[in-house]
Design goal:
- With about 700 residues, this protein is of the alpha/beta class.
- About 40% of the residues lie in helices and about 15% in strands.
- The strands form 5 sheets. Strands 2, 3, 5, 6, 7, 8, 9, 12, 13 and 14 form a 10-stranded mixed β-sheet that branches. A 7-stranded parallel β-sheet has the order 17-16-15-18-19-20-21, with helices on both faces. A 6-stranded parallel β-sheet has the order 24-23-22-25-26-27, sandwiched between helices.
- Strand 26, helix 21 and strand 27 form a beta-alpha-beta unit.
- The chain is globular.
Length: about 700
């Protein structure tokens, strides 16, 4: 080991003299890079101390990681160690193409178990080494990876997930960062002269514009994933560019020519010690081929490049040149689709917008960076805006509002704040007011229930507010025909469209006989749910206990207040937030929604029916749901009738099966994604008329 130790020590000295940053001993990678901030940057370094390294043996890999190596054993070891530590749960193989390295590198590679080392007898360069590795690979997918990189946790899963997200995915690149945490590349831009930009270079890698999945011109060959068969179909890396440079861009253009897409995947974060292998000067060595191959690339692809902009012109558009329609959605806060029905609906709407060809930008009014919800949207190609990079929604509208074809303002309070700014700064955009539910209707019913004149006055003020917003918007969206009729009675001139809640049909997970328990679902930031749960436990449940003694009621919902937690007893289980609620839908026998006031379509009822779980609902809960009593659900409004309905459904297997089947059909017929998509497509067609 003495020769290797001397070599490694010299490598450290060279790195320090080149200003690559302080080198830490026994680096422990803090791998969730998305949590890092510019205030507290984490520096990455290579391993100084090395020892035996063992990969898990894999006979049938899904992924083949190909690493071309020419000397630099310290970097190569650090790269391999990071792969071993941060690529769990996926079957992969590592193929190292040793491009005729010195003995020190060969000695280091012999210390590592369960990798395949293929040695070139002569130095063949990056391109030919990668192609040779691809010919030896067994995996369905190839990852081309530089040896001067450190991968981070979840990198491989994020790359692979891109193919699951979009079946047309061809080539996927990662987010490259420097060892000090600065951004090196968030996808690449080509200009019409064949020159290229590393988008975002030296900027703060946490900015919103660098952190959502998007199509790009190309990604750096430092880390690329591509299906093995596609790599061979396009002719692999073109050896006309040997030994290196422009082969990655050429590959991206060939992939697109085959009808596939090239994606930048920010969830895959890779540290790249740029220039270690080939240096940084373009006047000598391998790096000089950057200039030589630029002309080859331009001559080959100049007909495509002719449609691109001049160098440096509108990079904010060129970074995603495939986008020609943009939609901005403003909501009160970050959507949390696992916690409330309104968020679940909005999550599905954002997906539909994307499927209809729109680049989607989402901004919560409070600008909170709330995880994992921000990342969940970014992974689906939604640009999410957040503090401190966005100072205010108003400023963003003033600066960028003119870029959007459609702007959706969700909920009355949000729409009231921004409708005038939108009309001023986005005069050509189609403006949609999404009510989510009619707030004034819910508040009026609460006032009637509580017999409160002050609440009645507030409800009337809310009505004026909502109708004023609707008069300024091009289209107002409601969730049920009941609400559409109510608005049009007051203002028949308004354009009202119905986009209800959206649910996938999951189907029944178990039979009647295998189920027990009563289920109440509702987020407790929504006051009608708190009122309904208290009403049920205090007035309905005592009547049920007389006939179904020992039957548990599960109250499941986000943020239960003390008034709800105090309801807990021997047969009342208050769970609070549940990450996977499907277990309750599949094990309980009856779902209940004893709402006494509210508006809109009730997501809790939709969700229950989508799992084939029959429901007992109040008339308020059934509103706008297309439910027939005794056919799709049981509908009851007094404590006695509600309790009777629960007991009847709990004991009658024939009725249970009927309601289960009809509930599934109801969701499929009225609340499917396809239905909502068709409505939205018709709404967006009005943009042409407005323009």
């Amino acid at each position: 080991m003495s020769i290797l130790r001397r070599y490694l020590t010299r490598s450290v000295e060279i790195l320090q003299s080149e200003g690559m940053g302080s080198l830490w001993r026994h680096i422990r990678l803090k791998t969730n890079i998305r949590r890092f901030t510019v205030i507290n940057p984490h520096k990455y370094s290579i391993e100084e101390d090395i020892g035996p390294l063992r990969f898990a043996a894999c006979q049938e890999p899904i992924i083949s990681i190909i690493i071309p190596v020419f000397n630099q054993p310290l970097y190569t070891y650090s790269c391999l160690k990071s792969i071993a530590e941060n690529s769990a749960d996926l079957p992969f193989e590592v193929i190292v193409i040793d491009d005729c390295s010195d003995p020190e590198t060969m000695e280091m590679l012999r210390m590592i178990e369960n990798i395949r080392v293929i040695r070139n007898e002569t130095n063949r360069g990056f391109i030919k080494s990668c192609n040779r590795g691809a010919g030896e690979a067994k995996g369905r997918y190839l990852v081309i990876l530089n040896n001067d990189t450190i991968v981070t946790e979840g990198w491989l899963q994020a790359l692979l997930k891109t193919y699951e997200f979009d079946s047309k995915t061809g080539l996927v690149g990662c987010k490259l960062i420097y060892p000090d945490g600065q951004l090196q590349e968030a996808g690449g831009i080509f200009w019409n002269d064949g020159s290229a930009w590393n988008y975002g270079k030296l900027d703060d890698q946490n900015k919103p514009e660098y952190n959502y999945l998007r199509e790009v011109d190309y990604c750096s060959g430092a880390c690329l994933m591509i299906p093995r068969q596609l790599f061979h179909d396009v002719g692999m890396f073109d050896e006309e560019y040997a030994p290196a440079y422009y082969e990655d861009a050429d590959l991206a253009f060939k992939v697109r020519e085959m009808g596939r897409k090239v994606y930048y995947q920010p969830g895959a974060v890779v540290v790249h010690f740029e220039g270690v292998t080939s240096g940084t000067s373009v006047s000598h060595g391998v790096k000089r081929y950057q200039r030589i191959n630029h002309n080859k690339f331009y001559q080959k692809w100049k007909s495509v490049l002719a449609g691109y902009r001049d160098n440096g012109v509108y990079p904010e558009f060129e970074k995603e040149r495939c986008v020609d329609k943009r939609i901005l959605v403003v909501d009160a806060r970050m959507i949390t689709p696992d916690r409330d029905a309104g968020s679940h609906r909005m999550f599905e709407l954002l997906d539909i917008f994307r499927e209809l060809g729109y680049k989607v930008t989402f901004v919560p009014d409070n600008l909170a960076y709330q995880q994992p919800y921000v990342s969940n949207l970014q992974e689906r190609g939604v640009e999410v805006l957040y503090s401190p990079y966005i100072k205010s929604v108003e400023k963003y509208l003033r600066d960028s509002g003119g870029h959007f074809d459609v702007i959706v303002l969700s909920r009355a309070d949000v729409a009231c704040r921004f409708i005038n700014y939108v009309k001023e700064y986005s005069p050509d955009a189609l403006v949609i007011f999404d009510t989510v539910d009619l707030h004034f209707l819910r508040e009026r019913r609460m006032a009637e229930l509580k017999n409160s004149r002050s609440l009645q006055r507030l409800a009337e003020d809310r009505k004026k507010q909502e109708l004023d917003i609707a008069s300024k918007a091009d289209i107002t969206v409601v969730v049920s025909p009941v609400e559409k009729e109510i608005i049009q009675k007051s203002s028949p001139e308004l354009r009202i469209e119905i986009v209800p809640t959206i649910h996938e049909v999951h189907g029944s997970g178990s039979s009647f006989q295998k189920r027990d328990g009563i289920l109440f679902v509702g987020g407790f930031e929504h006051p009608p749910n708190t009122d309904a749960a208290i009403y049920y436990v205090q007035e309905i449940l005592p009547l049920i206990r007389q006939r179904l003694g020992g039957t548990n009621t599960y109250i499941v919902g986000n943020n239960p207040p003390s008034a709800i937690t105090l309801l807990a007893s021997r047969d009342v289980i208050v769970t609070g937030y549940v990450e996977d609620i499907s277990n309750y839908f599949n094990k309980c026998r009856v779902s209940i929604a004893p709402l006494r006031y509210g508006s809109g379509v009730k997501g809790k009822v939709n969700m229950s029916m989508s799992y084939g779980l029959p429901t007992v609902v109040s008339s308020i809960a059934a509103e706008g749901m297309f439910l027939s009593d005794g056919c799709d659900a049981l509908i009851a409004d007094t404590p006695k009738s509600f309790a009777n309905a629960v007991v009847r459904l709990y004991n009658d297997e024939i009725l249970w099966n009927k309601l289960s089947a009809n509930g599934l059909s109801n969701v499929e017929k009225y609340f499917s994604k396809d239905m909502a998509k068709e409505t939205l497509e018709n709404i967006f067609s009005l943009k042409q008329g407005k323009a």
